[in-house]
Amino acid sequence: MEKTKTSKKVLLLTQTAILTAIIFLMSFTPIGYLKVGFVEITFLVIPVAVGAILLGPAVGTFLGFMFGVSSFIQCFTGSFFGAALLAINPVFTALFCIVPRTLMGFLASVIFRGMYKATKKGNVSCAVASLSASVLNTLLFILFLILFFGRSDYISTMMQTTFNTDSILVGWNGLIEAITCTVIGFGISAVLLKLMKTNS
Question: What's the N-to-C CA distance of the chain in angstroms?
């Protein structure tokens, strides 16, 4: 019994480590971000959503945190938008990068578990949780951006230019992320969930 528990812990740690490695691999290669002007469409929600669905709230929270850490590092390594926020307030920038992503990972897992408990349908629960992860990432991003930087000249000016090209791209940002995360996140998590059930 004790050996089985140890094996499960080792497996969980291994799975978490693999997903963490994927997050950082995607963060620092073109796989993770599609950059158009100052707009950055991120696909890093996908491994967080998969981990949150398959491995539970604790792992979802941890992976969201690692996503946030990688986003903060991006502020120093080529993100124009992140560098601009860093120049305004480094502490707020760190919180802005990390807190929303951490919450997203936790909430995506909670939503999956709630849906699965209510419906007993893995595919539906995976789809809803994957979509929720992307939507939460976008909504929390905007909420914390306004909370921490809403009064800054940089963000105020950006918010006033509602109909310029960059602002239109921001709208497409959330849509593309939602579609991508829902399709790929659902596909991966649904297949792996069935495999996990079969093996158990």
Answer: 15
Tell me how far CA of residue 79 lies from CA of 8, 143, 177, in angstroms: 39, 20, 18
What is the residue type of 121? K
Q: Which two tokens stand for residue 94?
A: 């760190």
For 154, the token pair is 């940089």
Residues with Cβ < 8 Å from 145, sequence gap 6 or more?
96, 155
**Residue pair 177/41 in contact by the 8 Å Cβ criterion:** yes
* pLDDT of the chain, 200 residues: tens digit per residue: 566 778 889 999 999 999 999 999 999 888 887 766 555 678 999 999 999 999 999 999 999 999 999 999 989 987 788 888 999 999 999 999 999 999 999 999 999 999 999 999 999 999 999 999 999 998 999 899 989 998 887 777 766 654 454 555 556 677 888 888 899 999 999 999 988 877 76
**Closest to 105 (Cα-Cα) out of 67, 152, 147:** 67
In 52-86, which positions are buried (b, 16+ CB within 10 angstroms) versus exposed (e)? Answer: bbbbbbebbbbbbbbbbbbbbebbeeebebbebbb
Residues 6+ apart with CB under 8 A from 71: 27, 42, 44, 82, 97, 98, 101
**CB-based contact 122:190 (threshold 8 Å):** yes
